[in-house]
Amino acid sequence: MNLTDVKELDSIDPFAQHREQFQLPVNKVYLDGNSLGAMTKATSARLQQVIQQQWSQDLISSWNEHNWVNLPQSVGEKIANLVGAQREQTICCDSISVNLFKALAAALTIAQRQGSGRNIVLSTKDNFPTDLYMVQGISQFVGEHRCQLKLVEENELEQQVDDKTAVVLATEVNFRTGKRLNAKQLITSAHSQGALVILDLAHSAGAMPVHLDDWEADFAVGCTYKYLNGGPGAPAFIYAAKRHHKNMSQPLSGWFGHARPFDFTPDYEPATGIQQMLTGTPSILAMAAVDSALEAFENVDMEKLREKSLQLAEVFHQLLEDAALGSCLQLISPQQREQRGSQLSYRYEHAYGLCQALIQRGVIADFRAPNYIRFGFTPLYNSFEDIWQAIEQLKQVIEAKEHLDPRWQSRNTVT
Ligand SMILES: Cc1ncc(COP(=O)(O)O)c(C=O)c1O
Ligand SMILES: Nc1c(O)cccc1C(=O)C[C@H](N)C(=O)O
């Protein structure tokens, strides 16, 4: 495969025009949208408008006039379209961690009300740590007789569900390896054993089709700062299947989740639907940024977007093999395309140095301990030529041994 072939792929890319909607960093190849998505031009303009007009001039009246008060719902519905959820089940708020607390509490309450005596939250050792930390926090708070974390290997998750399992907590795409689990199969199997399922869609939403309703997921959470491009620390989302709305409750019972928040009554009465998952005042600037970033998904066919994401990864790996680098960088993402998320991860002794040297050359990937380098592909704005450029720089780094520079011998960055 040569540069002409790669350019040919760009010329027939159905999403080539979408790249124009993003304000991408100058002279950089950005392959880190799996950590922080790029900014859309519309977001920059929208934030200016919210700051200069709505906040500066309209101030308090904006809660009604500009519908600030309903942004969690309206943004939630836009996200719902991307994760296969019918209306009134998805809401935008807080962080994944906080939403996990609410989803876990709601699911455990449902299990408890069924009187099944189930107390196990089953998850995987390699899950993103915050997911596990949140279970540990709840467990300490309510006691192990109500909530006990059990960790198993990723490939054993389905088989380990039993009559003590209250909740299966699974992340669809593993943040380290990019391995995608079969969510539908997991949910069907967990349900047949009487367990509920919470899905973490951090690395799925906006990168691939998700079918929460069809899969019969119970609860789901996800962030908007990766493939949805909502910005650093952008609010997350939470999904609760409608069939649970009557039986669920969550203890972060702030006034935004009240049935009538502006009645200011002393007793908490939860709203009837997904709104009860809200807690406090939404951050309007952050909400507005997500709202406008989601415009880039209008009329996007998620199946086609997924196909491009898989193609980007395939071209990347093919070029890496063509450059005879496949033996030094060992692919730890699955070989089979349908088992992958939208990233490729490689194990490499000098992964940190390689990542830093690439960053020096304008290719932005990231490092995950102990020795993985991750390349994230965002099909809305990455081109095939991006992939070509990244591999060209990678070859040059290795040839010139830049990754062995003493500066990178010890890790000195946070992310
Ligand atoms: C799978 C997964 N879950 C959760 C998080 C973090 O969640 P929060 O929004 O609470 O920072 C991340 C990344 O930061 C993640 O990759
Ligand atoms: N959420 C992040 C942050 O606040 C700072 C730096 C990185 C992140 C991330 O999203 C990391 C990411 N979840 C990962 O897959 O490793």
UniProtKB/TrEMBL annotation:
<dbReference type="GO" id="GO:0097053">
    <property type="term" value="P:L-kynurenine catabolic process"/>
</dbReference>
<keyword id="KW-0378">Hydrolase</keyword>
<dbReference type="GO" id="GO:0019441">
    <property type="term" value="P:L-tryptophan catabolic process to kynurenine"/>
</dbReference>
<dbReference type="GO" id="GO:0019805">
    <property type="term" value="P:quinolinate biosynthetic process"/>
</dbReference>
<dbReference type="InterPro" id="IPR015422">
    <property type="entry name" value="PyrdxlP-dep_Trfase_small"/>
</dbReference>
<dbReference type="GO" id="GO:0030429">
    <property type="term" value="F:kynureninase activity"/>
</dbReference>
<feature type="binding site">
    <location>
        <position position="255"/>
    </location>
    <ligand>
        <name>pyridoxal 5'-phosphate</name>
    </ligand>
</feature>
<dbReference type="InterPro" id="IPR015421">
    <property type="entry name" value="PyrdxlP-dep_Trfase_major"/>
</dbReference>
<feature type="binding site">
    <location>
        <begin position="128"/>
        <end position="131"/>
    </location>
    <ligand>
        <name>pyridoxal 5'-phosphate</name>
    </ligand>
</feature>
<dbReference type="GO" id="GO:0009435">
    <property type="term" value="P:NAD+ biosynthetic process"/>
</dbReference>
<comment type="pathway">
    <text>Amino-acid degradation; L-kynurenine degradation; L-alanine and anthranilate from L-kynurenine: step 1/1.</text>
</comment>
<dbReference type="InterPro" id="IPR015424">
    <property type="entry name" value="PyrdxlP-dep_Trfase"/>
</dbReference>
<dbReference type="GO" id="GO:0030170">
    <property type="term" value="F:pyridoxal phosphate binding"/>
</dbReference>
<feature type="binding site">
    <location>
        <position position="225"/>
    </location>
    <ligand>
        <name>pyridoxal 5'-phosphate</name>
    </ligand>
</feature>
<dbReference type="GO" id="GO:0005737">
    <property type="term" value="C:cytoplasm"/>
</dbReference>
<comment type="pathway">
    <text>Cofactor biosynthesis; NAD(+) biosynthesis; quinolinate from L-kynurenine: step 2/3.</text>
</comment>
<feature type="binding site">
    <location>
        <position position="203"/>
    </location>
    <ligand>
        <name>pyridoxal 5'-phosphate</name>
    </ligand>
</feature>
<feature type="modified residue" description="N6-(pyridoxal phosphate)lysine">
    <location>
        <position position="226"/>
    </location>
</feature>
<feature type="binding site">
    <location>
        <position position="171"/>
    </location>
    <ligand>
        <name>pyridoxal 5'-phosphate</name>
    </ligand>
</feature>
<feature type="binding site">
    <location>
        <position position="281"/>
    </location>
    <ligand>
        <name>pyridoxal 5'-phosphate</name>
    </ligand>
</feature>
<comment type="function">
    <text>Catalyzes the cleavage of L-kynurenine (L-Kyn) and L-3-hydroxykynurenine (L-3OHKyn) into anthranilic acid (AA) and 3-hydroxyanthranilic acid (3-OHAA), respectively.</text>
</comment>
<comment type="subunit">
    <text>Homodimer.</text>
</comment>
<feature type="binding site">
    <location>
        <position position="200"/>
    </location>
    <ligand>
        <name>pyridoxal 5'-phosphate</name>
    </ligand>
</feature>
<keyword id="KW-0663">Pyridoxal phosphate</keyword>
<feature type="binding site">
    <location>
        <position position="96"/>
    </location>
    <ligand>
        <name>pyridoxal 5'-phosphate</name>
    </ligand>
</feature>
<keyword id="KW-0662">Pyridine nucleotide biosynthesis</keyword>
<dbReference type="Pfam" id="PF22580">
    <property type="entry name" value="KYNU_C"/>
</dbReference>
<dbReference type="GO" id="GO:0043420">
    <property type="term" value="P:anthranilate metabolic process"/>
</dbReference>
<feature type="binding site">
    <location>
        <position position="97"/>
    </location>
    <ligand>
        <name>pyridoxal 5'-phosphate</name>
    </ligand>
</feature>
<protein>
    <recommendedName>
        <fullName>Kynureninase</fullName>
        <ecNumber>3.7.1.3</ecNumber>
    </recommendedName>
</protein>
<comment type="similarity">
    <text>Belongs to the kynureninase family.</text>
</comment>
<dbReference type="InterPro" id="IPR010111">
    <property type="entry name" value="Kynureninase"/>
</dbReference>
